[in-house]
């Protein structure tokens, strides 16, 4: 996420991070379902209303980098250099995200997510939202000139690529394999040029 510039913004960001770190520590120590919102707030030394001003739900505490992930994918589309190809830009971003999410230090978090129906459901809704946001960014780029359906399809493929690669035995090889298919699908959606 972009570093907050003003003192107030820095303080808000620090409070948010403290809440998220506290929640994650408690969830990993005692189990996601065994820890309540009030306990997280008390341990982080904030009011419950303060916690909810930073996080919309208990599940959001686990996925505290959700917005950053979504912004990074959108930025891969909107922040491309002129004439930079879309699929390699998205591949590069997904590779970086997969590297981050497959680090050994993150494995206990994914185990916790996999064991919790509430967290799996939240992750699925988050992925659908990310796909829609990404599709909107792709469709809005006049240089790409694809239909809304093609934009939505490719966006879903990209989001699924992240999830599938994260779970693969060789995540980076999986990203390459999946993006080979995404590249082919993207080329298949190219508008035909009639002479």
Structural description of this entry:
- The N and C termini lie far apart (46 Å).
- The chain folds into two domains: 4-56, Arc Repressor Mutant, subunit A (Orthogonal Bundle); 64-189, Tetracycline Repressor, domain 2, CATH 1.10.357.
- The mean pLDDT is 90.
- The chain is built from ten helices and no strands.
- It has 195 residues and is an all-alpha fold.
Along the chain, the helix and strand elements come as: HHHHHHHHHH
Number of discrete helical segments = 10
Low-confidence stretches: none
Q: Judging from the principal axes of the Cα atoms, what is the shape?
A: globular
Largest sheet: none
The level-1 CATH class of the largest domain: Mainly Alpha
| CA-atom Rg in angstroms | 19 Å
Count structural domains.
Answer: 2
User: What distance lies between the first and last C-alpha atoms, to the nearest angstrom?
Assistant: 46 Å
Return the structural class: mainly alpha
CATH topology of the largest domain: Tetracycline Repressor, domain 2
Compute the average pLDDT: 90
User: Mind telling me which CATH architecture of the largest domain this is?
Assistant: Orthogonal Bundle
Pfam families: TetR_N
Keywords: DNA-binding, Transcription, Transcription regulation
InterPro entries: Homeodomain-like_sf (IPR009057), HTH-type_TetR-like_transc_reg (IPR050109), HTH_TetR (IPR001647)
DNA-binding region: 36-55
């Amino acid at each position: 996420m972009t570093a907050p510039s003003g003192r107030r913004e820095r303080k808000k960001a620090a409070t948010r991070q403290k809440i998220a770190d506290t929640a994650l520590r408690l969830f990993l120590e005692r189990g996601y379902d065994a820890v309540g919102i009030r306990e997280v707030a008390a341990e982080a030394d904030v009011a419950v209303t303060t916690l909810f001003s930073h996080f919309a739900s208990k599940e959001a505490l686990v996925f505290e980098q959700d917005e950053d992930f979504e912004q990074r994918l959108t930025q891969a589309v909107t922040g491309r250099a002129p004439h930079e190809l879309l699929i390699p830009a998205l591949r590069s971003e997904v590779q970086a995200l997969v590297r981050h999410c497959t680090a050994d230090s993150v494995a206990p978090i994914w185990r916790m997510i996999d064991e919790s129906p509430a967290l799996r459901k939240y992750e699925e809704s988050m992925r659908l939202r990310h796909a829609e946001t990404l599709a909107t960014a792709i469709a809005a780029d006049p240089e790409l000139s694809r239909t809304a359906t093609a934009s939505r399809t490719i966006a879903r493929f990209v989001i699924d690529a992240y999830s599938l690669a994260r779970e693969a035995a060789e995540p980076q090889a999986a990203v390459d394999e999946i993006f080979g298919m995404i590249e082919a699908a993207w080329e298949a959606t190219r508008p035909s040029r009639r002479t």
